[in-house]
Design a protein that fits this description.
By secondary structure, the chain is mainly alpha-helical. The protein has a single domain, classed as Amino acid/polyamine transporter I. Helix 7 packs antiparallel against helix 19 and helix 12 crosses helix 20. The radius of gyration is 21 Å and the shape is globular. The N terminus is likely disordered.
Amino acid sequence: MHADAEEMHSTLAGGALPRATSLAGVARAPRWTRFFAVAGPGLVVMLADTDAGSLITAAQSGAQSGYRLLLLQLVLIPILFIVQELTVRLGILTGQGHGHAICQHFGRRWAWVSVATLLVACVGALVTELSGIAGVGALVGIPAWISMVIVVAGLTLMACTGSYRTVERIALVVGLFECVFLFVAWRAQPDMAEAMRQAVQIPIGDKHYLYLVAANIGAVIMPWMVFYQQSAVAEKGLTVADLRAARWDTAVGSVITQAVMAAALIAVAATIGRTQPGQPLDTVQQIVGAITPFLGPVTGTLVFALGMIGASLVATIVVTLTAARALGEVMGFEHSLEHRPQDAPWFYGAYALILALGGVLVASGTDLVALSVGVQVMNALLLPIVLGFLYLLARRVLPEPYRLKGPYAVLVGATIALTAGLGLYSGIAGMFA
């Protein structure tokens, strides 16, 4: 696979397009067969996007602002697709991960700036994901340190014994448990007339509202998503023939992740947001309490546990792999799941160490709700760096037929500038509320 990537890059450097072949056995397959063969990187990264921190941020938004942030969830769907579609182009047409591409085209110093930004986001996200798992364990009486030992050992074993495709399938299966929040939102029986009325109410002068706007932007467009999907597309060996299917993979994932975010917001807005408007959520147990009135204590706890475990596990896999891969890309060591541990010891060592450090931090105790919202705001503040490099790469590196140019380049540039600017403004304004 790496030989193919090198051959592809060599071909691009000579000005020709990469060969239009696809995954083995599906070059002339029907569209649906091709889609299912190609799908994975987009769906996995989008399911990881709706992680423990994102779900808690959505729940906090529903509790404090009712349905007033519901419209933002819908607006973020095309923005999320626009951003992640650029990673698909770059991964397919360069065969490189994001950090490697920055290093080659902007220099190692800028690559380290970008990767340092990524690592900050990854550490915050990882602690949030593992805290979500520990919070679910606490609901059934399992101490945090036992939950962390099980998760760290299990995910390290998975990475060391599985190929990329195996890890991808595991991530997809556990991530789909998030969809239980769609059922939760339906059972909450929200007042749709009230939801639509509040959705268009935008209290732009409310700094607490702006803080939640920044948190929601950071919860949806995260730095590690850009790095993960570009590397995953390259590692899976997708080529130009797979570009259309890979875009659909990303589009479907964008809709699913925002549907889950909206569902979590609706479920809490229909309960705490209606009976105790403005009441903040301080613990995972309070979030569970918001959904138990219409599901019952046992069913409510079970449904929440399945959704949170699915969201946390898939995000933990993605975030840890992203951090280890990015370090490999800028430091020059092997960084693929297709290599055995003995052939890529630094990659697997970094993966295990990052995971273990996250587990130790969580076992020491942390305020999950406050941490989760804070991490998402931090993501929003980091967006100008991450999205700036992504835009420049799409403008400079891609071959002519696939380069970001013309009116669409203006649209993408304006979208990225407005999104990053709003996240930055809202985050700074909210922090000084």
